[in-house]
Amino acid sequence: MTKIESDIVETNKSAEKLYNFLTDFNNFKSLLPEDKVSDFQSTNDTCSFVVKSMPTIGMKIVDKTPHTQINIVSHQGKVPFDFTLLVKLTAIDDSNSKIQMIFEADLNMMIRMMVEKPLTNFFNMLVHKVKELPV
Q1: Which terminus of the chain has a lower count of CB atoms within 10 Å, N or C?
Q2: How many CA atoms lie within 13 A of 43 on its CB side?
Q3: pLDDT (tens digit per residue) in 48-85
Q4: Tens digit of pLDDT for each residue in 14-38?
Q5: What gap in Å lies between CA 69 and CA 23, rounded to an integer?
C-alpha cells in the first residue's frame, strides 16, 4: 500500500468553514491550478477532471465527520488504480485550523515510481492553496 501524506498546513479559517467548503465538490475547482487542469465537472458529492499528462481523475465523497474528516474515493475515472483520499481537519480555535490530505492506493512499483512525487506535490499544493480560500 502506498501512502502519501501532504504537509500539515495551518489556516486562518475555522474547521467548520473549511469542512462546509470542502464537502461540496462544486467548490473544489477553485483549489486546482487552471494551467494544469481541464474538463472539470462536479456535483456536490462527485467530481472529475483531467490533470495535464494524466488520465481523467474521478472522485466521490463517501463519508464525512462534521468539521474533522472527509473520506473520498476514486470514482468513474480512468486512473489505472483505485485510491482513497482522507482530508483531515483539526480545529486550533474558533477561527483557525489545520488541514492535511492523506492519499492511499495499492500501486505496483512502476506506477508508484511514476506518480509518487507528482502526487505529493499536487496534494501539498492543494493544502497550501486552502489558506487563500475566501471562506
Answers
A1: N
A2: 7
A3: 998 877 778 899 999 999 999 999 999 876 777 899 99
A4: 999 999 999 999 999 999 988 888 9
A5: 10
CA distance 15 to 90: 6
**Sequence letter at residue 133:** L
Average pLDDT for 90-115: 94
- Which amino acid is residue 96, in one-letter code? N
pTM for the full model? 0.92
CA 36 vs CA 33, 56, 85: distances in Å: 6, 12, 20
Residues 6+ apart with CB under 8 A from 55: 77, 78, 79, 80
Calculate the alpha carbon distances from 23 to 47, 67, 88 in Å: 11, 10, 12
